[in-house]
Design goal:
Rossmann fold; 2 domains; four-stranded mixed beta sheet
């Protein structure tokens, strides 16, 4: 594949474009591009990716779908008032927020919408194609950062799958940063297979599960027997409200449990509980209680507490994923991007579950992308497309 033009612009189409995460993504990208803040938390700004041909942050153009109508500048002011964004940042990047807001289109399906799935998919795909044409983009990546939805019941496509199908119909790579169904719906399997597009997901690994991906391998490598692993999450904001639904919480917890099963080789006793605490706003607290046996059966306990701002943890990863997936598309990769498992609780494709091994896979992708425009011109070998 030819190398991108130096002046090429790349679209990032956000599903849930007026939410806290999306607003932080747009404001954060503008702040880093303008030199107002360093790119703290962005893996793609580390030296290992310096020559991998990733699109520059300054080349990213934002748009998206949402079902709410609160303008991004107003949402950014609310986030600044809550301490999520730095004071003064919304006014400093007001032009960029307004520009992104102009590219947001109504999502759905809204109450009373009588359109069938095919009509909704066609409408969403048309919005994305129009965005690419209107903004003169070389390509665009669709990223789902909307609130978690319950697992679907029956054959009807949930909203996340409608958006995912629209992305592929528009010829765009797709990233599912949520635990929602997205491309995982069985009805979309033929479309996924025939599209020839790269995709990644699912459910961004930003806090509790990030720790689990480190601690699980530690116990296994030190031959310590984990008897029980229980956890509690306290969170507010939109996620807290969405995850108050037991079905949505179950979808969220599936990825957390998978990490333990994959790293420990067994599923210990214990569950993860998610509590909606509106007073916490965009902050979350995750507590884990791990009971394990040492030499001669000595019983011991490890407890961890993670307190963080969900949007600030997620936003740099969304930017990383948009850049990596856009570059993978430009370089000719297709199918599940298993090397991006580093970013997810429940990653697509085949890959390791421990964070250190996932990081090694990610740096391997960086090398392949760096070599993609050399002799041979492809960024992956036979195992890259699955």
């Amino acid at each position: 594949m030819p190398e991108s033009r130096p002046d090429a612009r790349v679209g990032v189409w956000l599903v849930g474009a007026r939410g806290s995460v999306a607003t932080t993504v747009v404001a954060g990208c503008a702040a880093v591009t303008a030199g107002l803040h360093p790119p703290t938390g962005m893996v793609t700004e580390s030296p290992v990716f310096a020559d991998s041909g990733l699109p520059a942050l300054s080349s990213l153009v934002f748009g998206g779908h949402d079902t709410v109508d609160c303008p991004l500048p107003k949402r950014a002011e609310a986030l600044a008032a809550g301490g999520v964004l730095p004071p003064g940042l919304p006014s400093a990047v007001a032009a960029e927020l307004a520009a992104a807001d102009r590219e947001i289109r109504p999502g759905g399906p809204a109450a009373g919408d009588t359109r069938v799935d095919a009509e909704l998919i066609a409408a969403f795909a048309s919005d994305i194609r129009d965005f690419i044409t209107r903004c003169g983009l070389e390509r665009a990546v669709v990223v789902n950062v909307a609130s978690t939805e319950p697992a679907p019941v029956g054959s009807a496509l949930p909203a996340s799958s409608l958006y995912a199908a629209a992305a592929l119909h528009a010829g765009c790579p797709y990233v599912n940063f949520t635990p929602s169904t997205g491309l995982h719906h069985p009805a979309l399997a033929p479309l996924v297979e025939s599209s020839g597009l790269p995709y990644a997901g699912r459910d961004g690994k930003t806090g509790q599960t990030l720790l689990r991906a480190v601690l699980g391998p530690m116990f296994a490598q030190r031959a310590l027997t984990v008897r029980a692993w229980s956890g509690t999450n306290l969170l507010g904001g939109g996620d807290g409200a969405a995850l108050a639904d037991p079905a949505a919480a179950a979808a969220k917890n599936a990825g957390k449990e998978r990490v333990l099963a994959d790293t420990l080789g067994t599923v210990p006793e214990g569950e993860v509980h998610i509590d909606d605490v509106p007073a916490l706003g965009d902050w979350k607290t995750a507590w884990d209680h791990i009971a394990f046996d040492g030499f001669l059966g000595t019983r011991m306990i490890l407890q961890t507490i993670w307190q963080g701002c969900d949007s600030s943890l997620a936003a740099p990863l969304v930017l990383d994923l948009a850049r990596l997936t856009a570059r993978a598309h430009q370089a000719g990769l297709s199918g599940p991007l298993a090397e991006l498992g580093f970013f997810f609780k429940d990653p697509v494709g085949e890959g390791p579950a421990g964070l250190a091994e996932q990081y090694a896979e990610l740096t391997g992708l960086a090398r392949r992308l760096r070599d993609a425009d050399g002799p041979g011109g492809r960024a992956h070998d036979s195992e890259g497309a699955q």
